[in-house]
Design a protein that fits this description.
With about 190 residues, the chain is of the alpha/beta class. The chain has helices at about 10-30, 50-55, 80-85, 105-115, 130-140, 145-155, 165-170; strands at about 35-40, 45, 60-65, 90, 120-125. It has a domain at about 30-125: Protein tyrosine phosphatase superfamily (Protein-Tyrosine Phosphatase, Chain A). The chain is built from seven helices and five strands. Strands 1-2-5-3-4 form a five-stranded mixed β-sheet, with helices on both faces. Strand 1 and strand 2 (about 45) form a beta hairpin. The chain is globular and about 70 Å long.
Length: about 190
């Protein structure tokens, strides 16, 4: 039996090339996302991905897709089916514009982020605007950030068109006033 000696340097080069090709495939899958924003090593934001881009997300290490669009906005796309067939978890949290920016939805959004324990997480809506709004409100209402910090987080997460609505929601609630009965000149008729 004849042994072929492969120089160690050649083997290292082949392994490095494979690693580069793997990193390029990951970068390519994420680069297919429209208006892609990397928040950190795990969390990503984008506009509505195409079916082709969704299928490739698993190769980029995405384990969960959180969709903030109501189904009525994408009636011809079975995003849940595509995501699950590709081996990822799908979370639907319909946020219908400014009226959907509620405390209940922000809590559900935070819980969906926390429950996404495997791999990267893609959060999307039509443009990234609703994701940015939810990130800002989450920062303020759940994480206790200041209004300015929360707004900065929202902007860096895609907040644009809903900014005025978010600014109003970030402001502290007016103080509750204790009503004290004061004497009045009004006397009911007897």
């Amino acid at each position: 039996m004849r042994h072929i000696r492969v120089p160690f340097i050649f083997l290292c080069g082949m392994l490095a090339a494979a690693a580069v090709n793997s990193a390029e495939a990951t970068a390519d899958a994420l680069s297919l996302l429209p208006s892609h924003i990397t928040l950190d090593e795990r969390f990503h934001v984008s506009a509505q991905p195409t079916a082709e881009a969704i299928v490739k997300l698993r190769s980029a290490g995405v384990g969960t897709v959180i969709n903030l669009r109501p189904a009525s906005e994408t009636p011809d796309l079975d995003e849940k089916g595509i995501v699950e067939k590709a081996g990822m978890k799908y979370v639907s949290l319909p946020v219908a514009g400014a009226v959907g920016l509620t405390r209940d939805n922000v809590v559900a959004f935070d819980q969906a982020m926390a429950a996404a324990s495997e791999g990267k997480v893609l959060m999307h809506c039509a443009s990234g605007n609703r994701v940015g709004a939810m990130m800002a409100l989450r920062a303020r209402w759940i994480q206790g950030k200041s209004a300015d910090e929360a707004l900065a987080i929202g902007r860096s997460s895609g907040l644009k068109g809903l900014e005025a609505d978010v600014k109003a929601l970030l402001q502290p609630e007016p103080p509750k006033v204790d009503v004290v009965s004061a004497p009045s000149g009004y006397r009911p008729q007897e």
